[in-house]
Design a protein that fits this description.
Number of domains: 1
Helix content: over 70%
Radius of gyration: 30 Å
CATH superfamily: FlgN-like
Structural class: mainly alpha
CATH topology: Methane Monooxygenase Hydroxylase, Chain G, domain 1
Largest sheet: none
CATH class: Mainly Alpha
Strand content: under 5%
Length: 172
């Protein structure tokens, strides 16, 4: 059991470091989104995808160790969580303290990631809203108001002000 606990602590520590790396990338992404640099945004997103892949790999390792621990403790594999494991370790204060410290560190990184991701999501939504607004303005500028030209039946002929577009005449 002791080696399983040490293995779990090592895996949680690696997972925490990967989340810390991802957190740094996400914080860097915030300034990139504010600047509106799409090329840099693409690059940072690719780096984030690589970090997420590493986190997924470490999480699989953690799940395997947690399953092994659940078998040793004769507990339901699907229901055993780290918090439950901390309760089980009440009689082993040193192991519990080590595991709790690593778990708290990981939890802090995950909460910070969530906060930064929500901020980035909000910034991206604002940027999209601004882009839609600018597109609407451009489209409104292209559709000029109708003239007061009437045909013989006293109906508007539907012509618009300044709708003539410069065209290239290839015959000249």
């Amino acid at each position: 059991m002791a080696s399983l606990m040490e293995n779990l602590e090592e895996i949680l520590d690696r997972e925490s470091m990967e989340y810390e790396t991802l957190l740094g990338l996400s914080m860097k992404k915030t300034s990139i989104v504010v600047k509106g640099d799409l090329e840099e945004l693409k690059e940072i997103t690719e780096e984030e995808q690589l970090a997420v892949g590493r986190i997924t790999h470490v999480e699989r390792e953690r799940d395997k160790v947690m399953n092994d621990i659940a078998v040793v403790l004769n507990m339901d594999v699907k229901k055993l969580k780290l918090r439950d494991l901390l309760q089980v370790l009440e009689r082993r204060p040193q192991e519990r303290q080590k595991l709790a410290a690593v778990f708290d560190k990981l939890s802090r990184h995950v909460r910070a990631m969530k906060r930064v991701n929500e901020q980035n999501k909000s910034l991206i939504e604002d940027a999209l809203e601004m882009t839609r607004f600018e597109l609407n303005i451009i489209q409104a500028m292209k559709s000029a108001p109708e003239t007061a030209n009437y045909d013989k039946d006293a109906l508007s002929d539907g012509s618009a002000i300044a709708t003539t577009q410069a065209r290239f005449d290839a015959k000249q």
